[in-house]
Design goal:
It is a single chain. This protein is of the alpha/beta class and 494 residues long. It has 2 domains: 190 residues, Alpha-Beta Complex (Aspartate Aminotransferase, domain 1); 256 residues, Type I PLP-dependent aspartate aminotransferase-like (Major domain) (Aspartate Aminotransferase, domain 2, 3-Layer(aba) Sandwich). Helices cover 35% and strands 10% of the residues. Bound molecules: pyridoxal-5'-phosphate. Pyridoxal-5'-phosphate binds next to α6.
Length: 494
Amino acid sequence: MPGSASGGINFVEPLVFERGRGGRSGSSAPPLDVPAVDPKALFGDACRDEAPRLPEVSEPEAFRHYVRLSQWNFAIDSNMYPLGSCTMKYNPKVNEWAARLPGFAGIHPYAPERMVQGALELMFRLERGLAEVCGMDHVTLQPAAGAQGELTGLMMIRAWHQAQGRSPKKVLIPETAHGTNPASCALNGLTAVPFPAGDHGIVVAEQLAQHIDDDVAAIMLTNPNTVGLFESELPTIAAMLHDKGALVYGDGANLNALMGRARPGDLGIDVMQFNLHKTFTTPHGGGGPGCGPVGYKATLAPFAPCPRVVQREDGAYALDYDMPDSVGRLRSFNGNFGMMVRAYAYLREMGAEGLKGATDLAVLNANYLRVRLGELWKVAYDQLCMHEVIISDKHLRETGVTTMDVAKRLCDYGFHAPTVYFPLVVKGAMLIEPTETETPNELERFVAAMAAISEEAATDPEMVKTAPHLTRLRRLDETKAARHPVLRWTPKAD
Ligand SMILES: *Cc1c(COP(=O)(O)O)cnc(C)c1O
């Protein structure tokens, strides 16, 4: 481990930026063979007077800088990453091959439709494939993330109500929901109304009835929910909402526990988002660029984002802008096309049987961990779970070691921490999602690490409380990191 705490030589040079020397360069441009132009004449006031202070480094220095940064990061390509709710499954490298094919990667966003028929066909087919998987009539690929998909779906719901001359304001959301759900409501001018799930971790239709009135626009439900349980009363709940003229938004982030086995559309959901980086193996990339398609039933079709990809009668593909009631454009051009190529490659690689197999393994792996970890740790809802399981630090209370300490110590064992202290309804929660990509051996290694940490908590709690010991940086001040983030390299004054 680089920079270990064991007193070894810290050979890690922190920043290549500081190592630059004036005039050093990693590239060479051909001699100018056109008349030189004064940039001021071209760009006027927008032109800089001085060159920006960028590091001047050789190619190996630049390369080492980025490779080193990648090694300082924890990655699914190096170790198991059981971060619950985030579905950190392996990203198949064939996806990368497909996305880099020059015919896809090199398309100009203004290229005329006749020159990008293949790309439009891929989008058309991906839409059909996703619609089939979730039981929806249509899909838009525009939104750039799951959260933006939520926003899109809620905009469509609002437009649907408005088209009928109504403007109900409330959206019912269970307390266990992901934080993006209430945020998407707020961005839409809707009011999130939280309500508690039943004692067994799922929403109970009977208890929900009291919250449904004329001002309810929709309910937002995640299925399976964020405690890893199947919302088995969903069809009844959907019927209750529909009876009152309200709609059902499905947060599809956990579709990886359903695909091939159950379809949200068949369960009563009207509109939902897909998180391609969770269910369909596109990379999770530092907040984007991503893709969060939205599936919807035919009733919502007039309000969908514009344009949509259609197939004309002569078989050619085209972009249809003739959508007068559309909520508009959600993303420049046609969204993040590279992600669509990756997801499509995954769909085709897996096929229907493969997707079902992935679902089965994801659920099997989570239940394997539920049983094995449950031998030592407190399982929050000890019943058959879906793709993720929640344990807590309850049996460590006497030792003073907390969920946070366990999470930090796991880094020393080479595992990414689970999601901690979420959902809020479980005290000291660790939300663990192994995904289908881990083998039984790897799951056992994780169980062994957790057992070792439990043992350490009893015999040497201080050691766990001061973890991590083997990572490049030790325990960080998370409050300070959130309140005063340093996101920018600033050159030292000469
Ligand atoms: C990840 C997640 C989201 C947000 O999706 P992003 O693609 O990260 O914006 C919403 N709801 C649930 C349940 C999630 O797990």
